[in-house]
Amino acid sequence: MLREKTRELMPSQDNGGVPFALFAGMKMLTTLLLFAIATAALAQQPAGKSAIASGRTAAVVSEVVAAQVMLDRAGFSPGEIDGQAGDNLKRAATAFQRSTKLTESGQVDQQTWERLADVTGRQPPLVEYQIRDADVAGPFTPSIPADLVEQSKLDTLGYQTPLEAIAERFHASPQLLQGLNPGQAFSAAGQTILVPNVNPFELPQPAPTDKQSLGRGQGVRRRPVGTSGTSGRSVTEPGFTIAVTKSTSALTVEDAGGRVVFHAPVTTGSEHDPLPIGMWKVTEVFLMPPFHYNPDLFWDANPSHSKVKIASGPNNPVGVAWIDLTKEHYGIHGTPQPSRIGHVQSHGCVRLTNWDAQRLLQWAQPGTTVVFRE
User: Which DSSP string corresponds to 61-81?
Assistant: First the structure.
């Protein structure tokens, strides 16, 4: 049987009043899920090599992490999986409860926990993952300046480290992965680590080199404002609406009957660049786009800045995808800072984590209705 690592990852329950229900049933289920990890790990070992012999240990996972993983698997994203019982978790739980006709408390209570377990197939919250060559091959961009003009001097806006790349692949904070895998360097292929049991995020292929320069607001027809790149088309059926709600910092995809089928935290607007309340349409979708920075459109831009083009990459200002809208200068896009989603303001556009932006593409297609509401 696997040795149990006793390091407790559970954050303090004093989290600013955000409720998170803890009860014996949840703890028992978590224990069973962790036992499943151990069983799976043993079953997957090559003949003659046990998990004990390989030195692997099982983590004591908190109920918060387990809930975040299950909500993510169910399509109700808590944003970055970090083990923190904050607003993003509460809003994801509320959206799941509304969709499944449970009492909307925002608490992951016993009824919600059991429904989540049923919906997600009662899978363990953590699984073992063997680091691939691709995870550590790069190219990486170790130093990325905050200044956008300085960013334009870089050939690519890639991940800064293999740890950042692996964390984003499994929708997690680097700090959570380090806590689950103490002493792990995350630097060599073949190493086995524990990761959240979510659908792994695959980085899209970079866009081809532009044949013409596009400035923000000067794109050709069906090109997104501020970006250019590989066009992405969805094959989803019509009848879905993308809704962004300012008061809850949430994006939802709703079917024709109003049922929420996808939820994700977002960052929206600010006092200087408020979310444009109203109904819009998707014009086009672009994957791994470069960003065309126009300081005239940013209220806080450095007066010495000029228009520049910033290379594509997951740490590009708009992340891995841009969903262009009929509202000029506005779009829905990814981010280089997943830990800030749902917690800070933006320059007017709607930001999601890169993995949630990619998931949204199955519903976002030219003509899809997008509603921005209070």
Answer: --HHHHHHHHHHHHTB--SSB
Closest CA to 37 of 256, 252, 168, 192: 192
Point out the least confidently predicted range of 55-59, 239-243, 246-250.
Answer: 55-59
Please state which CATH class domain 230-373 belongs to: mainly beta
Would you list the domain boundaries of the chain?
Answer: 7-201, 230-373
Token pair belonging to 313: 């990459």
Question: CA torsion, points 257, 261, 267, 272, in degrees to nearest 10?
Answer: -10
Which residues face 231 on adjacent strands?
A: 286
Q: What residues have CB less than 8 Å from 222, skipping those under 6 apart?
A: 231, 283, 284, 366
pTM, two decimals, is 0.80
CA 42 to chain centre: 30
Q: Give the closest residue to 151 by CA, choosing from 11, 308, 25.
A: 308
Q: What is the mean pLDDT of the chain?
A: 79
Cα–Cα nearest to 261, from 104, 111, 91, 77: 77
Give CB contacts under 8 A, 24+ apart, made by 213-220.
213/292, 213/309, 214/292, 215/292, 215/294, 215/307, 216/292, 216/293, 216/294, 216/297, 216/307, 216/329, 217/294, 217/297, 217/328, 217/329
